[in-house]
Amino acid sequence: MTIGTIHGVGLGPGAQDLMSVRADRLVRGARHIAFFRKAGKPGQARRIVDGMLRADAIEYAMEYPVTTEIPISDPRYNDWLSTFYAECTRHLAALAHAGEDVVVLCEGDPFFYGSFMHLHSRLSDIAPVCVVPGITGMSGAWTASDTPITWGEDVLTVLTATLPEDELTRRIRDTDALVVMKIGRHLAKLRRALVAAGREESAWLVEYAAMPDQRVTRLADATDIAPYFAIVLIHGQGRRP
Amino acid sequence: MTIGTIHGVGLGPGAQDLMSVRADRLVRGARHIAFFRKAGKPGQARRIVDGMLRADAIEYAMEYPVTTEIPISDPRYNDWLSTFYAECTRHLAALAHAGEDVVVLCEGDPFFYGSFMHLHSRLSDIAPVCVVPGITGMSGAWTASDTPITWGEDVLTVLTATLPEDELTRRIRDTDALVVMKIGRHLAKLRRALVAAGREESAWLVEYAAMPDQRVTRLADATDIAPYFAIVLIHGQGRRP
Question: What was the ipTM of the complex prediction?
Fold first, then answer.
């Protein structure tokens, strides 16, 4: 019997037709589909593929034991997640060893701040793993803003809004173009850092890029409440003939 | 008569099936196809779509008047390119005003260091322009390296190797994950900057990612000669449960 392959498949920023042709084929053909989601929610990755799955597809929902209920600094956070990833790994490896291929759905690009990376590092010594890159959420965001992100020799810095405020300020001051991910409950802090760096006026908030309720707002005009699928951008102003 | 639309279509890093479903449909359906290339070369964007075009597709090759023959600092550089972009803009706008849609082929993602941006800024007030994001060359590169680029709170810095050496060194020292684009003839300088920053040992050179001759080498084991389609990476080592 041949051992199956675990495919980590990037789905892109949200619109079904922004999936790659390779991802589209794998998703439509898969007998086993796995995806992460917050417990009790349908899951964004699963939502993207609505209507694409085989009628006989077997779904494996991997529900995070914790997301924002306790701070990342709490020692239980790492313990719970690491037990969870080990369990998902066992399940997927068992399917592969039974000869089954599995498609793991990944929002954006699997290797860019993705949960699949935690399975990839655990699986790659025990089963064949294959990654399909995807259009990142940040590409979706700057396309939604209808403005290029980097010109000529622009430096692009990608930050997570979870960083300390002074670290955010220092780095926002020292870059041409900026992308901030993982905004969530950190938007007020991020705004203070942008103001301190003198750059709030050039920042844009992009919510639900490439999804039906996509919205692009000057950060200065936005409230401090943003959904999980939000990205803050500052466009580079580099050389252009 | 309806005015046509100019579509700037991201083709992704090089493999035909890493194009999005939306890009695939637009490319296969287009009566007018435009693309940039170095004079006398077939052009990488055009190569990616080989075999996909309609039999009656009309092709418009936009040949750069200059690439690396004179330095960017030479005043003629900007003049020649700006005359060239103006001419391409006139041609595409004329097609749109004659009611024709045009697909402009863009390697990677159109708004990430792409030549299409120079047409977008000139066209957007005179004709409908629509951009389809793509998988970036850097996503293709880190996927080829089979290693995630950013974990947890990793800071990612994207640089062009054209920057001055001390600027490269300073920024390479001050980031978790690194992507360097536009390597070309700057690899020896980039290597000196990586060594000065104490990070040459963790750097990887990815050539022709997602193309048939894809190659991933530890930078320390590579020569100082790299093709245009080369990217240097340092993978982040951030938090992972």
Answer: 0.96
